[in-house]
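FIELD: query
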Amino acid sequence: MKRFLLPLIAAIALPTIVNADIRKIPEALRQSFSKDTLILETKAGETIEIKKKSVEIINTKDKSDLIFATQIFYKKHYKEERASFKESSWNKGTKEYFIENSRNLEKKELQDNLWVINKHSPKSSALHVFSFSFIPIFTDLNGKKSVLQKEYVQCLNPNLPNVIKDMWNFLMSPNYLDSKYVDFVCEKYAKF
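FIELD: result
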């Protein structure tokens, strides 16, 4: 009987522990700022702590990084497009025509985007993005603490023009944007 009871209890308790992940609990509503710790509270009264010690700045990005990321994006995108043209069943003349058009379009789109960056970006020394990693600590209603998985966020400079923010949002990894903590962490730790 004991052999069956222990796995049964573990099977019932395990989903409760797994559900402690922030993605499974209600949206964090209220926040209180202490000197070194960001404390978020859920609707149910559970808390998530993000201690300053666990927050690491991975990197910062500025105008030159946006230009570089844009160039890489267009090279990769159009390289893939030209490869698909080469593999197509079209005749040789049609393939060459589309490949050459693709090169011209790549240059034009890249020039247009670089012009937008140069026209709308603030001075070149201004930071555009902070990238952070941190480890949140979840506290349930019984006071039991558990460490959640490491999270990554990128914070955009709120003073950037919308067109530049849109470019960064397009080029940034979706993993950095999925975190439920983005707004809170950016407000507390990103100093532009």
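FIELD: remark
Residues 62-120 form one domain.
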